[in-house]
Write a structure and sequence with these properties.
The protein is an alpha+beta fold. The chain has one domain. The chain has 2 helices and 2 strands; from the N terminus they run αββα. The longest helix has 12 residues.
């Protein structure tokens, strides 16, 4: 809808196996949005991630 390019990383269903997620966001829950343009990380809140994207790029 916003025409943004993105990279989707699939992670294990089991939270105990989400070391890569924890390394980026300090927690193991998903989703995690990482915006390299602003160094913004939004973790485990899809509504907040969508609102951020609309405000930043909409």
């Amino acid at each position: 809808e916003l025409g943004l390019s993105y990279i989707n990383h699939n992670v294990p269903f089991d939270q105990d196996k989400r070391d890569a997620v924890e390394k980026i966001s300090a927690q193991r829950a998903v989703p995690v949005l990482v915006d390299p343009n602003t160094d913004t990380i939004i973790a485990d809140d899809d509504d907040k991630a969508v609102a951020y994207l609309k405000k930043q790029y909409g």
